[in-house]
Amino acid sequence: MPQPSLTNHELDSPPWSRVESTLMATARLVREAFDSRLAPLDLNLTQASLIGYVAEFGATSQTRLADHLGIGRAAIGTVVDHLQARGLVERQPDVEDRRVWLVDITTAGRETADRVRAVDEVLRAELRRGIGREERQALAWVMTRLQQNLRNSIDTTRPPTPR
Amino acid sequence: MPQPSLTNHELDSPPWSRVESTLMATARLVREAFDSRLAPLDLNLTQASLIGYVAEFGATSQTRLADHLGIGRAAIGTVVDHLQARGLVERQPDVEDRRVWLVDITTAGRETADRVRAVDEVLRAELRRGIGREERQALAWVMTRLQQNLRNSIDTTRPPTPR
DNA sequence: GGATTATTGTACGGCGTCGTACAATATGTG
DNA sequence: CACATATTGTACGACGCCGTACAATAATCC
Question: What's the pTM?
Answer without folding.
Answer: 0.83
